[in-house]
Design a protein that fits this description.
The chain is an all-alpha fold and about 220 residues long. The protein has a single domain, classed as Orthogonal Bundle (MetI-like fold), CATH 1.10.3720.10. The protein contains eight helices and no strands. The longest helix has about 35 residues. Belongs to the binding-protein-dependent transport system permease family. Its main location: membrane. It holds the Pfam family BPD_transp_1.
Length: about 220
C-alpha cells in the first residue's frame, strides 16, 4: 500500500469535504431561520408555500436533490453544465436540504417559548425585533442546540453523497484508491477521518452547549 499516496489523496478529498460542510452550515443556518419564519407566517399562502418546500426537501433523498440541482439546468433549461459547476451544485443542494431541517428545529424552539415572555417584553417597551433578538433567540438557541448538533454530525457523513455528481470528496477518493490498490485500507482510513471529524464537531458543539447553559 502506498501510504504517501493514500494520505495525499484522502487529504485532498478531506478539504473538499470540509468545503461542503462549512458552506452548507453558512448557507443553511440563516436560511433555515428565514424558512422557519415563513412556515409560521400568518398569511396562509406564504405558510403553505414554505410548508410544501420543507415537505419536499425532507421527503425526498438528498442524492436525488443533488442530481436535480446538477442536471436540472441542462435538462430543463438547456444550459450547458461544466465540471466546475459540480461543487457549486453540491453547495446549493446541501444548503437547501439542510435549511429545511434546521427550519423545523427553529420552529419547534420558537413555538416552545411561553407567550408571557412576549407580553412582558412588550410592557417593557421592546419592539418585536428587539424581543426576538435579545430575549427569545438566545433561549431558543439553548433549547435547540442538541438537535442542531445531531444534524451537524449527520451533515459530516452526508457529505459523502456528493459522489453522486462526481464531486471528488473524501469518500470518492477512498473508493478510487480502493479500486486501484485492490485494498480495503482506503475505506478504513476514510472511516477514521470521518470519525475524528465527527469527534471534533461533537466536542465543539458540547463546548457551545456548556457556554449557553447559563441557568446552572
Amino acid at each position: 500500500m502506498n501510504w504517501a499516496l493514500l494520505l495525499s489523496k484522502l487529504g485532498s478529498g478531506m478539504l473538499t469535504t470540509l468545503e461542503i460542510f462549512c458552506v452548507t452550515l453558512i448557507v443553511s443556518l440563516p436560511l433555515g431561520l428565514v424558512i422557519a419564519f415563513g412556515r409560521m407566517a400568518k398569511n396562509p399562502i406564504i405558510r403553505t408555500i414554505f410548508k410544501i418546500y420543507i415537505s419536499i426537501m425532507r421527503g425526498t433523498p438528498l442524492m436525488l436533490q443533488l442530481m436535480v440541482v446538477y442536471f436540472g439546468p441542462y435538462y430543463i433549461l438547456g444550459l450547458q453544465v461544466t465540471n466546475s459547476y459540480r461543487l457549486y451544485a453540491a453547495f446549493i443542494a446541501f444548503g437547501l436540504n439542510y435549511a429545511a431541517y434546521f427550519a423545523e428545529i427553529y420552529r419547534g424552539g420558537i413555538e416552545s417559548m411561553p407567550d408571557g415572555q412576549y407580553e412582558a417584553a412588550k410592557l417593557l417597551g421592546y419592539s418585536k425585533a428587539q424581543t426576538f433578538i435579545k430575549i427569545i433567540l438566545p433561549q431558543v438557541i439553548k433549547r435547540i442546540l442538541p438537535s442542531i448538533t445531531n444534524e451537524v454530525i449527520t451533515l459530516v457523513k452526508d457529505t459523502s453523497l456528493a459522489f453522486a455528481i462526481a464531486v471528488t470528496e473524501m469518500f470518492t477518493q477512498a473508493k478510487a484508491l480502493s479500486s486501484s490498490q485492490v485494498s480495503m485500507i482506503p475505506y478504513v482510513a476514510a472511516g477514521v477521518f470521518y470519525y475524528v471529524f465527527n469527534l471534533l464537531v461533537a466536542s465543539v458543539m458540547e463546548f457551545v452547549e456548556k457556554k449557553f447553559n447559563y441557568y446552572r
